[in-house]
Amino acid sequence: MNLPINPPFLPMLARSVSGIxxxxxxxxxxxxxxxxxxxxxxxxxIELGSRNxxxxxxxxxxxxxxxxxxxxxQCVMDGEIVVGRGDRLDFEALQxxxxxxxxxxxxxxxxxxxxxxxxxxxxxxxxxxxKVPYKERRLRLQGVLAGARPPIHLTPVTxxxxxxxxxxxxxxGAGLDGLVAKPADLxxxxxxxxxxxxxxxxxxxxxxxxxxxxxxGGVVGSLLLGLRDGKGHLQHVGVSAxxxxxxxxxxxxxxxxxRMEDTSSHPWAEWAEWTESSRxxxxxxxxxxxxxxxxxxxxxxxxxxxxxxxxxxxRFRHVAQFRRWRTDRDPASCTYEQLKEPCSxxxxxxxxx
Length: 353
What we know:
Layout (H helix, E strand, L loop, with lengths): L12 E4 L9 E6 L3 E8 L2 E6 L10 H10 L3 E12 L2 E2 L1 H6 L5 H10 L2 E11 L2 E2 L5 H11 L7 E3 L6 H10 L7 E6 L9 E7 L2 E12 L6 E9 L5 E7 L4 H11 L40 E13 L2 E2 L2 E2 L4 E5 L21 H5 L2
């Protein structure tokens, strides 16, 4: 490729804030829940790069064809790859697109096609736009995508904080993640957290049924969280992992009395006999096949309160944040019924601008 910006290239990032920034000159847009993607086009040559600069081309052939039909001959865009099912985003379906078999990839591309939602323009023809203020980059992006057709979309944007707050609450019903706020004069700086993101946060009481070791060894890395479904099965719903070094040591002592020598009675002991729809902790990592996903079973008697942003299917979409132990809570009462679901909202209405 011979572009002003060439891969590999790291995207600009956002830092979490507790509320919607309301300063003058701020632009607000939805926070899409998918795979961050930098799209490079130089004539017929196109590259889709993940947030960590891993190539995504082979997994989304329909987006390569759409980029050739809809985008300028030479450009670099920042955006998100998402999959919509019905009236909302489906991150689980998106994850299924990362598959080693070409035949399976082609089948999924037709059954659950992906969409590229663009939200920034980094280069156009021979112009490097990284130092251009965001306000101007947005205007240029609108221009180049004015005639674009699905599955290429331009993310909506507003400068009105009241509308942004309305989006924050309504768009969650379509599976979106929250809001991103960008100052009008913001340049594009790779790998720096210069944007702001506001995400939904709720709390749930979960059973702690196991833990994984930290990669450094000798201390707790993450807690494995469970909730009971309608049949009383303890489903693995996610992990809590953000702890200080000191807290990881403390957790090891706190969990020691619950470690199981005989795991035959553990609710996840016979995971291989469960159905594919069940949520289990001993599964591989789709992005890192060599990652150690082994875990230490615990008697499912401990309950902790965690903060989470939203569910994806029957699982927490992101790592949950540990809040406190709930020694007053019966583990049998930790069910999915306590979780709040947002009112539905039509994804097509958002993509339609």
